Amino acid sequence: MAANSYSLLQVVTKCSLQKPSRPTKLEHSRNPLSSTFKPILLRELDHFPNISLDVPKAIKDASFNLLEAFVDFICEFVDQPLLPSKSNFAPVEEMIEGTTVGIVEGKIPDDFPEGVYVRNGTLDFFLRPNPLFGGLKSTRSIFGESSHMWIEGEGMVHALYLNKENGGKWKALYKNKHVQTDSYNMEKDRKKPGFLPAIQGDSNAILLSYLLNLLRFGVTDKSLSNSNVFEHGNKYYSIAENHMPQEIDIHSLQTKGNWNILSGSWNRPFTSHPKKAPGTGELVIIGIDGKKPYMELGVISADGKKMVHKADLMFDRCTVCHEIGVTQRYNVIMNFPLIVDISQLVLGGQLMKFEKDGYARIGIMPRYGDANSIKWFEVNPCSVFHIINCFELNDEVVVRACEARQSVIPGPSSSINHFDKFSKWLKRETSSTNGDSHEFTKESTFSRVCEWRLNMKTGQVKEKKNIFGDEFVMEFPFINENISGFRNKFAYLQVVESTEVSGSGFSKFGGLIKVHYEEKKTFNMDEEDELIKAEYHMFPKNTFCSGASFVPKLGGIDEDDGWIITFTHNENENISQVCIIDAKKFTEEPVAIITLSSRVPYGFHGAFMPLTS
């Protein structure tokens, strides 16, 4: 296996010097050949000069067509399966025009802010973003099998606009639209899949995918934009880790293009969860690569027009880091053992691996510091994708996050039939079942809330796990963003429906939880500390949520003055709705339920954007 991989690598390096022309749609692509989940530029390619040959266009076109014929001959695209029980993970068609929503149960509060509730990531199964041509793909060839991961697929933005008409009557308008990245437009014009899956499967097949993608399109992976939406400098962006953000016209949802303001000052993608620095409004970002420098940090001006600071964090490995934290003075950096190692792929192993015995540490870095200014704290190895909040408290920096003993990414080493393998792999993480209550082992892939207190003077680490018990598992945390970087009393998360986890291996979120950090619940003799209070808002049976977000009340005084807004889908009736819940009356019925005219698949992250016009 290793010898074959090295032979294929030699072919990659030789052929890449004389690649044919690629489709014009990608000529100006800002894809820097790196990503959080696909840092796939082989380091050996850097040793070769950039050779430019004056080749006639006819020869370039012929070369491209020959490569296309070669791909069609040796590679077979196969749709990954979608079980009937996963119907709302299936993609939906793009709408030509928005539709007015007329069915509202309850009443949208008079003091609810006007704006747009927007969520990214139309999904196919298990949080799977919206793919073209019917579903995510796998490929078979003489070199083996490769498949898309469940996090791959084109992004689709779903938006609900809430505005008041004359007389104060609320008007709701729903629309959706694909995020039109360069590679999305290219494949749409081709009317068939183009990029071969290049993240999961047999190592030789993955290396072949790199080669053929590079030779045909000039880039090795698709530019996805399916994870999150954010605002900065009065502009709105869609983002995923494997590409620069795409600017979105928030009113029409049209893609305006890549964020080119940073051209020349930032040559890699950045995290799906950039953070605004408290006080300055600057945007703090991080980006990883499969070659050195493995991780860099940047600070973008509050108006979004320039990079005011950038630092190589001098990592000795490529670690997947989905989110960064900020406090009033510091950046909080997670260096955990979900590793991308290109050399393992070349040797016949997997590109991405969670090293449960590897080291884990949290770095506290002054806002404009460098690698030498980071103070590192060793913590127990675990997997963290999402940070709840970070803040300073006396001599400590407090980090609150969702922590699991294993990583749900990349999942099992699998190929075509990875749906079944993923389900079985998740079930192996599940221990005993007692009625409707499900407990999970310490090695579970499912997250619970944890907290680290890092003493900047003594270097001591205090770690708390399962701070309000083991009753539920949860993910996709959010807070009142006005409190980000400051001490928060509350946090909100989506609750995993345990019956869905145990029954099929794929998560749905059957409710929401409100965490009261400053209220105690009970004293547990088996725990070192008291458990904190938590409230639950569970949806009716077979109704699940996604993209939940906090909407602050204008002029609100308390941290929880506001509402929770979330997309929900009733699988019994096949109806999608938007629920608005009073955060202060969290366990009560929603104050308003807005029934949409079309189905909205489950998705990733959502946000509420106040609009003035």
Outline the structure in words:
- Keywords: Dioxygenase, Iron, Metal-binding, Oxidoreductase.
- With 613 residues, this protein is mainly beta.
- The chain has one domain (69-411, 443-610): YVTN repeat-like/Quinoprotein amine dehydrogenase (Methylamine Dehydrogenase, Chain H).
- The protein is built from seven helices and 39 strands.
- Strands 2-8-7-4-39 form a five-stranded antiparallel beta sheet, with no helix packed on it. Strands 3-38-37-36-35 form a five-stranded antiparallel beta sheet, with no helix packed on it. The protein has a four-stranded antiparallel beta sheet with strand order 1-5-6-9.
- A hairpin with a 6-residue loop joins strand 11 and strand 12 (246-248).
- The chain is globular and about 70 Å long.
From the structure above, extract its key features:
613 residues, mainly beta, five-stranded antiparallel sheet, 7 helices, 39 strands, disordered N terminus
Q: Quick gist of this model?
A:
The protein has 613 residues and is mainly β.
Helix/sheet category: mainly beta
Distance between the termini: 60 Å
Percent of residues in β-strands? 35-45%
Q: What ranges have pLDDT less than 50 throughout 5 or more consecutive residues?
A: 1-25, 27-52, 123-130, 412-419, 421-443
Please describe the biggest sheet, giving its number of strands, its sense, and whether it closes into a barrel: 5 strands, antiparallel
> Globular, elongated, flat, extended or rod-shaped: what is the shape?
globular
| The CATH homologous superfamily | YVTN repeat-like/Quinoprotein amine dehydrogenase
CATH class: Mainly Beta
- The counted number of beta strands is 39
- SS element count, helices: 7
Rounded average pLDDT? 79
Might you state the CATH topology name?
Methylamine Dehydrogenase, Chain H
Helix content: 10-25%
Number of domains: 1
Integer-rounded radius of gyration: 24 Å
Spatial strand order of the main sheet: 2-8-7-4-39
Indicate the CATH architecture.
7 Propeller
Pfam families: RPE65 (PF03055)
InterPro entries: Carotenoid_Oase
GO cellular component, one term: chloroplast stroma
Cofactor: Fe(2+)
